[in-house]
Design a protein that fits this description.
Blueprint (H helix, E strand, L loop, with lengths): L11 E4 L31 H17 L4 H18 L5 H14 L7 E6 L1 E3 L17 H8 L5 E3 L8 E3 H15 L6 E6 L9 H14 L17 E3 L2 H16 L1
Helix pairs in contact: 1-2, 2-3
Organism: Aegilops tauschii subsp. strangulata
Enzyme class: oxidoreductase
Protein name: Fatty acyl-CoA reductase
Length: 254
C-alpha cells in the first residue's frame, strides 16, 4: 500500500524463503504460489479464515484470563498445527507462503520480484569475510560449538546443507531490481541457493568448524587458560539420539 503511493516506483522486491517449498525433494521450480494453494492434497488455504481463527483464539484467551506465557504457548501451538495441516513444517515458512500469495494478488501496475534465499549465513566478501549481524538460524550452532555448550547434534552428515552467504543474497537482490525495473507488470521469482551448483554436505560445516576453532580457540577458562576443543558427536536418526540422551543424561539424573 505504501509502495503504490510512491510516484516514481519502478518495481517491488519481496524477500521470501526457499523453504516455502516445504519438504519436497528434487529440483524445485521457480514458480509462484497461487492464492489458496497448499502443499497437502485435498486442502485449500483461505487467508481471511486463518486471520479470523487467530483473532477468535486471542479473544478466547483474553476472556479466560490466561497468562501471557500461556497465551504465547497456545498461539505457537495453533500456528504449528495450522501450518502442518496445510503441509508446511512450521509457522515461519507457512506465513512466508501466505506473503507470496498476497504479493501475487496485489492490484498493482509495476513488476514484482520475489527472492527465495535458503539459509543465509555469514558473508563471503563484503563488508569483510565471515561478517554477520546477530545470531540467527545456523549461527546458533556455530556459537554453541565455539563455546563448547553443544556436545552433540541430530543430523545426517551426508545430507546437503543449503546455505548462502549474506552478501550473495544482497547482490542478487540488487541485480534483480536493476534487471526488472523497466519491465511491464510481471511477477518473477528467483531461488538464491547453493545446493544445485555448489552442494555442501553437513560434514563440510563440521570439518570447517573444527578446523577453524582448533586453530583459533575462542574460549578460555576462568583462569584464562584455553578450553580444549572436543569433537562433536552426531546422530543421523532420532532413535539413536533419544537412546544416547537416555543413557547419558536421563538415567544418571534418575
Amino acid at each position: 500500500a505504501f509502495g503504490a503511493k510512491c510516484p516514481k516506483l519502478k518495481m517491488f522486491l519481496h524477500v521470501s524463503t526457499a523453504y516455502v517449498a516445504g519438504e519436497q525433494e528434487g529440483i524445485i521450480p521457480e514458480k509462484p504460489i497461487l492464492m489458496g494453494e497448499t502443499l497437502r492434497v485435498g486442502t485449500h488455504l483461505d487467508i481471511e479464515s486463518e486471520l479470523i481463527l487467530v483473532k477468535d483464539t486471542m479473544l478466547e484467551l483474553k476472556a479466560s484470563c490466561s497468562t501471557e506465557k500461556d497465551g504465547r504457548k497456545t498461539m505457537k501451538e495453533l500456528g504449528l498445527k495450522r501450518a502442518r495441516h496445510f503441509g508446511w513444517p512450521n509457522t515461519y515458512v507457512f506465513t512466508k507462503a501466505m506473503g507470496e500469495m498476497i504479493m501475487g494478488n496485489l492490484p498493482i501496475d509495476f513488476p514484482v520480484v520475489i527472492i527465495r534465499p535458503s539459509i543465509i549465513t555469514s558473508t563471503l566478501k563484503e563488508p569483510l569475510p565471515g561478517w554477520m549481524e546477530g545470531i540467527k538460524t545456523i549461527d546458533s550452532v556455530v556459537i554453541g560449538y565455539a563455546k563448547q555448550t553443544l556436545p552433540f547434534f541430530l543430523v545426517d552428515l551426508d545430507l546437503i546443507m543449503d546455505v548462502i552467504p549474506g552478501d550473495m543474497v544482497v547482490n542478487a537482490m540488487m541485480v534483480a531490481m536493476a534487471a526488472h525495473s523497466e519491465d511491464q507488470q510481471v511477477q518473477v521469482i528467483y531461488h538464491v541457493t547453493s545446493s544445485m551448483r555448489n552442494p555442501a554436505p553437513y560434514s563440510i560445516l563440521w570439518k570447517s568448524l573444527f578446523q577453524y576453532f582448533n586453530d583459533n580457540p575462542p574460549c578460555t577458562g576462568r583462569n584464562g587458560e584455553r578450553v580444549r576443543l572436543k569433537k562433536m558427536r552426531f546422530f543421523s536418526t532420532v532413535i539413536w539420539f533419544k537412546l544416547y540422551m537416555a543413557v547419558k543424561y536421563m538415567l544418571p539424573l534418575e
